[in-house]
Amino acid sequence: xxxxxxxxxxxxxxxxxxxxxxALNIGIGDINVNDIESVEILKDASSxxxxxxxxxxxxxxxxxxxxxxxxxxxxxxxxxxxxxxPHKYDLLDVGAFAELVNVYKPNYFTSQQIxxxxxxxxxxxxxxxxQTGFTQDYQIALNGGSQITKYYISGNYIDQKGIVVGAKMxxxxxxxxxxxxxx
Length: 183
Hints:
Layout: E1 16-19, E2 22-24, E3 36-42, H1 45-48, E4 59-64, E5 73-83, H2 94-104, H3 111-120, H4 125-129, E6 133-145, E7 149-161, E8 168-180
Helix pairs in contact: 2-3
């Protein structure tokens, strides 16, 4: 993510993330979006000055959800989806390719070889490389407490299989915000 453009050719151009008042060196992908209550973006020099040079690329202030002094509430969300290649590229089959090669380099393939190519076919590498992707995203959150102690606990599980064979990601996250009044 870029807020103030590319400021360095060698160093990171990532903004500084402040989560619940704590500066963290993480990427935006490490944050469960379901836990976010509010986001504030600071990009001008005067508002980022209190963070010193760490705020040179901008500052993103994230406030996460907090417990409310109520009865316990459980929220569960499940999302699934598929992804596909929008369209396959229109490529030559092996027989047509051999004929095209012979146009530019006559007699490179014999007529028997071309006939064999057309009869036996070839490999459609797009079918070997691409697949239908599948995504599963599960979120559970517990929110509650009393006037003295409040809590918000959440967990998230994401399992993605991409459209390219072998491209996959699994992500687990757990977050807990507990606040209590003492005295």
